[in-house]
Amino acid sequence: MAEADINRETELKLAAQPEDFDRLRAAPAIADRAAGPAATRTLKSTYYDTEDRRLAARKVTLRVRKTGDGFVQTVKSAPDEDGLGRGEWECAVTSAAPDLTLITEDAAIALLGSLSDRELQPIFTSIVERTTQDVTLGEGDEAALIEVAFDRGRIELPDGRSRDLCEVELELKSGTPAALYDLAQELTKAAPLRLEMRTKAERGHALANGASDKALKAEKLVLDPETTVEGAVARIVRACLAHMVANEAVTLAGEDPEGVHQMRVALRRLRSATALFRPFIPAAQYLWLVGEIKWLAGSLGPARDWDVFGEELLAPVRDAFHKADGHGRSAVEDLDALAAAAEAKRLRAYEGVRDAIRSDRYTAFLLGVGSWVEKRGWRDQPVSEESVRLFQPVIGLADHLLNKRHKKAKRAGHGFAHLPVAQRHQLRIALKKLRYAVEFFRSLYDDKPVRRYIQQMAAFQDALGHLNDVATATRLLHELHDDGSRSAPGEPRAAGIVIGWHARGVADTEAALVALWHDFIDTKHFWSKPDTAV
């Protein structure tokens, strides 16, 4: 049984409902594996930061927790790229106030930086009733010891504002991180659970800042030249999942259309990565991954389509008619009626989004992919020329994959000026796959030519994206009342105005679009040409 690093915390958090705690504690996954009695205690932890939130900006945590008759000061680093591990350094202090002079570990001192006790102030306090139970998974050298903590309580600000919290924490004491996913998957059979990626500190700072959840773009991925192919697969898949989960909250709120957009981008990146590394993934695993990605993307798609229609296609036409000082008044009324019908459709689409994200299938997907990565599930295949390459440096493969994607995009756009809409859509998909591959591998190359290549490709992609949005609008307008609702008398006229408006715009920009295609084709590659044998 491998021991956990004394200065590292490895845990998986699951959001739960308090009424499910008894069921979860009694579940065979815990009750049949209990290693000793359960213990309950109340934890009061005060989190500190500077006025300008220097620590929170780097996702560094400094807290002091009341434990029995004493106090423990803890410094934690930002979560690792796998979302499970983080550095943790503890020491006893004499009061609820932090004492930085007692921190002696170089790594913790470096995390805090040039910080003094005088700069620190209490930001929020978490008050939690915690029941812990150790469980053992597996036997012999393969066994893992996990502390299961049932936390119920609240986060409080000095001004009295608070936020309830209820979660199950699975902390690895010894063994491999894959065991956390095994236990989590078993617990989801006992009660509904959701993966919680945010730490208590992140939730507390969000409450203190009074900030609503924001949509987040994918963080830049960093691969070292020595990273193996399987190491690259693991890091890329984890990055895609982290990007998607980071946009859950804002998507559930449904007020910022960028949330569902970023979740779909994360799914497209994940599907693109899966296709990119398909030769190294066993067929059954590949089919499961693609099937779940398609299901979720299909659940999010209608909401995104109606967001785009309302904001980017309908809104500019309505604005133009509203500013016409009374001219075309009947058209304005028709466009307003169309907007109301589209908004009703958008709201219903978001109900489908929420149902998907809150579903057991969604949680099973996240835990399943997490487990697959931790266990390196792709190794479950016969040894072959392809599978052996999983352990070779990814730099030797990146050139080949980028060249392959670039050639596919170039073929898809051959004779671009004369391509019909459907084929231009296929080109757009090929360009997306190319761009995601570039973003996955960009850290392996000199940044300046990579940035220039991406900028040139992005300009062309944006133009093609508008073409696709206009084509999608026609389909959406035909589906506007497929639920049996009745259309207003002027809606067909308004729909014709919107489509005609943008069709004219597409025609006017055709020459510029063709020029952008040629600019992209003429852009120099930033990768070297691979050997034909690769």
TrEMBL record:
Ranges of residues in domain CHAD: 226-525
One Pfam family hit: CYTH
Residue ranges occupied by any CYTH domain in the UniProt entry: 7-211
Matches recorded under SMART domains: CHAD, CYTH
Source domain of life: Bacteria
Protein name: CHAD domain-containing protein
